[in-house]
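Q: How would the structure tokens look for this protein?
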Amino acid sequence: MRKLMILTVLFFALILLSTSVLAINFNSLFTSLFDYFFPSSPKIISAKVEPVKVEPSDWMEIIAEVEDKYGVKSVFADMASIEKVELKLVYGDEKKGIWKGKWFVHSIEVGKSYNATIVAINERGKTSSVNVEFHDDPIFCCRRMVNITGIQGWIYRRPITINNTQNSNTLTDYQVLVTLDTESLISAGKMRSDCGDIRFTDSDGGTLLSYWIESGCNTTNTKIWVKVPEIPASSTKTIYVYYGNSDATTTSSGTSTFLFFDDFEDADISDWSQTNLYGTVSYSVVSNNVSYVVKQGPSSYTSGYRYKNISVSGWDGYAVDFDIYVGSYGAGSTQEGFQGLGLAFFDTANNYLGTVSAGMSNFINDDGASGDFFQTWNTYGTPADTCCVINPNNYYRDLRYHDGHSTGYWIRNVRVYNSSFSNVGKIMIALRHVDGSGVNDWSYFDNIRVRKYTSPEPTTITGNEELLPIALVTLDTASLISQGKMRNDCGDIRFTDSRSFDAALWTRNFSYQLVSGCNSTNTLFRVNVIPISPITIGKTFYVYYGNSEVTSASTSITVGLGNSTTTLLPEETWIRISGGTENLLITGGGGNLTIK
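A: Here is the predicted structure in token form.
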């Protein structure tokens, strides 16, 4: 019985197994028949070209990964209907592998895009394809040589470094002293003999600054005061001095430079008030064969002063500078004689605070000194230390008072008053005259000025000479745009000193500004040609255009006091020769052809 049961189970199992095999064979047969009549296409897993940007004479590599169950028979690339390139199996096998090929690029045009159609064919003759885009690596089609032909305006400049590192105050509208060797510049023909072409600009090289030439034109130590808008605290600042323009005339102005200035060149002293203590002091404007000056005296047995009130409310510090020439001070006389300048101080409510003064005197009791000394007095008549040994009958251009930001008031570097006045709102500048009977002393005053003062004062260093870096270029962009050689917005213009039409090979681009007139016959550009060293007449650089894929690189260029003028040479055009390794350079004007 048990054996019967086992045989029965085996019988039914054989029946089931036979049914499954028949089903499997049927499915396989169906699949084979379907593949025979309807074969599948190869599967292109990935495809690419390297590089994507090319130009004639480049080699391009085509790469495709292809899979097919029947086996891949061949793979090729149709390069934009220009040429077919066969790919070879380099990795894997015909059922799944990587295929590669190389193409020598030719006959493509500037600025155009193309498709490489990669086609895979299997053993059953079925195909698959994908498109991979590539395009011309745009270079510039055209250029013109630019020749520097001259200079407009100022030819030279020098940087001046203002050192305020020792001062924690930011200085505004501050007058700084610059010394310049104008003698060597004039002798070299770089500066006018009267220093009339000197100009100063702010750090941008274009904003003009007020200045005043104090003394020494055509000497090795020309003194010039410059009003600087802002000098940062504990730092440095650069300004520029320009020169080298024979057509320029001086703009030196003490009035524009200082808080107060009078050089009496208008031959008028009526705007100075006068107070006579006894007698009537003689004041007049006269010529000293160089300029107009105020003459004080002689007038026997007189005492008084000519004065000017200056508001100084809110000032943080100031200095009063003046030139004095003492003709006579009564030396040897028993009568009083004094020629000098005084400062009277008043608070903001106009209350008198005190006076300091300095001048030549024959007072025997003044510090035991004779007229060989320039003497100083404070408010109470007690003589202070003598300032400086001088000789009569000379000009003294560096005599000055200043509020030293510390206790006391100073003349030159000598303290003349040991306490500072507070809340000063006004100072009176007084030309002081005292003449005893028969003394007949007299003096000249000139260039009286008031300026800002801080302690310590900034110092200046003048740097090396520079030629002007900006070149002006005028180009007819209207005709270039109409010919299709330039973008409508002039965005493909570039300036360089490189001779290559391929921007990738340029070592430097010159920054430039499109000033005006794109798509006109007179488009104006400012070009910074600093990389050209030295910048001289006859130097050349290039303007390139004709590249549709680049955009404008125009940027703001500061206008200096002078520019290089330029002329353009005929256009040169870059032509590619299909299938070759050479390129053709056509130079306009004479029909010259140059193989490059």
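Residues 375 and 386 are 5 Å apart (CA to CA).

The chain has four domains: 43-136, 142-149+468-595, 157-257, 262-459.

Upvote if useful.
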